[in-house]
Design a protein that fits this description.
about 230 residues; alpha/beta; five-stranded mixed β-sheet; two-stranded antiparallel sheet; 8 helices
């Protein structure tokens, strides 16, 4: 069985990232037994240095147009429901996710780190919890089986890794979600599951050493989200 290494850049306040994660995971499951996929989750902060604020307000400010922002949120909600995800924009917030990324970076167990990623997405998107508060994040970590000794918000190594991840992502494409396959080609945006399946199979067949990309999926950058 061939192995495909996938690097995934995302942010918890990116509305399309959770949808992309679910579609990608469905693709991996569909190809189980054909391809072994090894995933590395990487951090990207859409709102570095920004104090948390109401999500609807933040998105409308970024778009500069309430109609366009509302249309985007409607598209996210509809696509989310198709993947079994609930987007409660009335309780969601937008801001600097350094603490959440640092927590996950400091977790040694890949399985527990993945559980934490999923829990933070649900907390931020569906549950209306404050993922910018370290006490809330600690409670979420405890929920997935982590003790306080398992993670460190102030790990200098984790903070350096976040900055390094962002530099790498910015050399490849603008915005997240971003998926790099075997370091050779990438997909950007919340592509359909079948697109992820084709990418994994293509990577397994050892594509040429030239990096090519596809970036026509729904994604978010520093200046806003496309749909």
């Amino acid at each position: 069985m061939q192995t495909v290494k996938v690097e995934v850049w995302s942010d918890f306040v990116c509305p399309w990232c959770w949808i992309a994660k679910k579609r990608y995971e469905k693709a991996v499951s569909a190809l189980a037994g054909q391809v072994q996929v090894v995933v590395t989750n990487k951090a990207y902060r859409l709102a570095r240095g920004m104090l948390p604020m109401d999500y609807k307000t933040a998105i409308r400010q970024k778009f500069g147009n309430a109609t366009s922002a509302d249309r985007m949120m409607g598209a996210v909600s509809a696509n989310g429901l198709s993947e079994g995800l609930v987007y409660n924009f009335d309780t969601m917030r937008f801001g600097d996710t350094t603490a959440a990324h640092a927590l996950i970076k400091s977790i040694k167990s890949p399985l527990l780190a993945e559980s934490m990623v999923e829990r933070v997405y649900k907390a931020a998107t569906t549950d209306g919890l404050d993922i910018f508060d370290q006490e809330v994040l600690t409670s979420l970590a405890n929920e997935v089986g982590l003790t306080n000794a398992h993670f460190d918000f102030n790990s200098q190594g984790a903070i350096a890794d976040i900055a390094r991840d962002e530099m790498e992502a910015n050399r490849i494409a603008n915005g997240v979600p971003l998926f790099m396959f075997n370091g050779k080609f990438f997909l950007s945006g919340a592509q359909e599951t079948v697109v992820f399946e084709r990418a994994i199979l293509e990577a397994a067949r050892q594509t040429p050493e030239v990096m090519v990309g596809a970036d026509d999926g729904e994604s978010c950058g520093i200046d806003g989200c496309a749909h």
